[in-house]
Amino acid sequence: MKKVEIKDLxxxxxxxxxxxxxxxxxxxxxxxxxxxxxxxxxGWLWNKPVAFVFIRxxxxxxxxVEQSDRLTLSFLGEENKKIHxxxxxxxxxxxxxxxxxxxxxxxxxxGSVLFEQSRLSLECKKxxxxxxxxxxxxxxxxxxxxxxxxxxGFHEIYIVEIEHVWKRG
Length: 169
What we know:
Blueprint: E1 2-4, H1 13-20, E2 22-27, E3 32-37, E4 40-45, E5 48-55, H2 60-67, E6 70-75, H3 81-89, H4 97-101, E7 105-107, E8 113-115, E9 120-131, H5 140-146, E10 156-167
Antiparallel strand pairs: 1-10, 2-3, 2-6, 4-5, 5-10, 6-9, 7-8, 9-10
GO molecular function, one term: oxidoreductase activity, acting on the CH-NH group of donors, NAD or NADP as acceptor
Domain Flavin reductase like: 18-166
Family: Belongs to the flavoredoxin family.
């Protein structure tokens, strides 16, 4: 993986997050977990390049995100949908996702976890977190659709500063 400047990114993150999906990974070389996500975004906040992601507390990865100062967002390309299928449907409590998918972890100087298969990875530092609150929904249809009990509990939102960008090659 080679480090690139954030200003040199030309990715369409609407497409990347919604169609390609991403892996959210936290932990360190001794123990980490990753999960597939396709809710989130990229932007500019507090004069910093940021990303935001949503994780339900019942997800195993949530424990790692809570215990870590950093997390990574890895984009594997559409050719790796099978990896996303496993990482989005199986829990790291039950299986070794690295072994099950063939993911090859790479560790940064800060101790963050990237994967050799990633075409693009964002190494991020946590800035802010809060729980989604039902009483604050203005759009009651989204509340009813996504939080009816059949999908799981309310998400926690994490706003993270994008500290480093890594590309394959």
